[in-house]
């Protein structure tokens, strides 16, 4: 599904990713962990197409297409979803308005039939139910006045509505209390744990991985993946930190 080969980039002339390679197949959940400044969020933003992240080498293909040659909206329409560590507020635009236009714009790009108002509301209610989010919340402006946990739950509702093939979730567990973490973890599983989908979780901590069980865990340091393993690797890092891995 996603193949990253020797990817390098820079921000404002500073090299961040330095030859990163990773393959994610359909049906797999991968977790990336690593110390601060390792390049985890940079990887997510580069794959999502955020401006200012200049690719200087390597490649990234998504479903056989050159991901790096696509504009951000084309990547989204192709089935890539990027979840942010700090979801932004959009005053004056309701969640329902934002989500319906987002979904239908992607459908137009793919040549699919758009949803009418009734169809969309039924879909929104279904996905909001997975995240225990009241529909009244979706009538409010996007993330305005939302707590950290509410923002993350609303973002997962967005993911459910857009129904991506690949979700890249950048520290989705940030700012979540215990109850919200369980709800968000269950929502990710319900939406994305399917044979034709895949997830790349970027996290600092084991706690999210207790609810969203990864197939593979990777350590990113110095702009490269320096170690890969199964779920047990996350437990090892939680116990011992990154020192031993980085010293190897």
UniProtKB/TrEMBL annotation:
Keyword field: ATP-binding, Nucleotide-binding
PROSITE patterns (UniProt xref): ABC_TRANSPORTER_2 (PS50893)
Domain ABC transporter as annotated: residue spans: 2-247
InterPro entries in UniProt: ABC_transporter-like_ATP-bd (IPR003439), FeS-cluster_ATPase_SufC (IPR010230), P-loop_NTPase (IPR027417)
SUPFAM superfamilies xref list: P-loop containing nucleoside triphosphate hydrolases (SSF52540)
Gene3D superfamilies named among the record's database cross-references: P-loop containing nucleotide triphosphate hydrolases (3.40.50.300)
NCBIfam families to which the protein is assigned, alphabetical: sufC
Family statement: Belongs to the ABC transporter superfamily. Ycf16 family.
This protein's name: Fe-S cluster assembly ATPase SufC
Gene (name only): sufC
């Amino acid at each position: 599904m996603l193949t990253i080969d020797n990817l390098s980039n820079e921000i404002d002339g500073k090299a961040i990713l330095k030859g990163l390679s990773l393959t994610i197949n359909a049906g797999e959940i991968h977790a990336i962990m690593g110390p601060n400044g390792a390049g985890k969020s940079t990887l997510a933003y580069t794959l999502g197409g955020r401006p200012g992240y200049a690719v200087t080498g390597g490649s990234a293909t998504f479903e056989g297409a050159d991901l790096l040659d696509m504009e951000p909206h084309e990547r989204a329409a192709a089935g890539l979803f990027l979840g942010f560590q700090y979801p932004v507020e959009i005053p004056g635009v309701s969640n329902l308005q934002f989500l319906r236009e987002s979904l239908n714009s992607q459908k137009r790009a793919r040549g699919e039939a758009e949803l009418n108002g009734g169809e969309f509301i039924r879909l929104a209610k279904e996905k909001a139910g997975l995240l225990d989010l009241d529909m009244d919340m979706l009538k409010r402006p996007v993330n305005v006045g939302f707590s950290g946990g509410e923002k993350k739950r609303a973002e997962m509702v967005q993911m459910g509505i857009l129904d991506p093939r690949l979700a890249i979730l950048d520290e989705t567990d940030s700012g979540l209390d215990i109850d919200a973490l369980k709800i968000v973890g269950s929502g990710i599983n319900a939406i994305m744990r399917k044979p034709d989908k895949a997830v790349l979780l970027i996290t600092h901590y084991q706690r999210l991985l207790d609810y969203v069980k990864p197939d593979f865990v990777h350590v990113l340091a110095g702009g490269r993946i320096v170690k890969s393993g199964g779920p047990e690797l996350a437990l090892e890092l939680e116990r011992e930190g990154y020192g031993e891995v980085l010293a190897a």
